[in-house]
Design brief:
By secondary structure, this protein is mostly helical. It contains eleven helices and no strands. The longest helix has 29 residues.
Length: 222
Amino acid sequence: MLVGNKESAVETHEYGTALTRGALIVLVVLLLGETTINYIDRQVVSVLAPTIRGEFHLSNSQYAAILNAFLAVYAIAYSFAGWFLDRVGIGRGLTLAVGWWSFSGMLTALSRGFWSLGAFRGLLAVGEAGAWPAFAKAAATWVPQKARTFVIGICNSGSSLGAMIAPPLVAAITLRWGWRVSFVATGALGFAWVAAFQLFRRSHPKMELTDPEQGSAGSNVP
């Protein structure tokens, strides 16, 4: 019995109190998926720029204004995203952030011109601003200190992976079904991620014990 307690203590010290080593690997894969999908969704407009600009007859200045509007909202929303995550907890905050930007990305398929495209991109920026604060807080909350920097480095690579995946993926979808379906399909990736993350959380209820804001809400699932 004493030996078992010592082994348990070693595992707790090495891998944290909420997750086993195997669960931590799954969590890292999920967080990497989150940052990768984030960059896929933001790259869709850039990949489709020639097609969309031609259909909507957008000038260089109009297209630049749409890109700058996204960046401006994104920069402002960063601070709000951090505040929001501190209030609602990482589990709920991650779910809402990914769900928000995925839905906004899908709405972009309804664009009819300059103003609607700009508005949908602004909505996308609000949700996407939560991606980096969210995975950083997830690492700080659920990953043991000695592995934290390594995990953050892995998750940061999602920006490069997403930028690499988006062009061939969006091009293939557009050639087969049209550019509007590209926004729907890439947005659906985010909802698939949300479903996987929720299943993971339900399988590991102890995660809420180390997510104080979520735990204080008295519910395991948003």
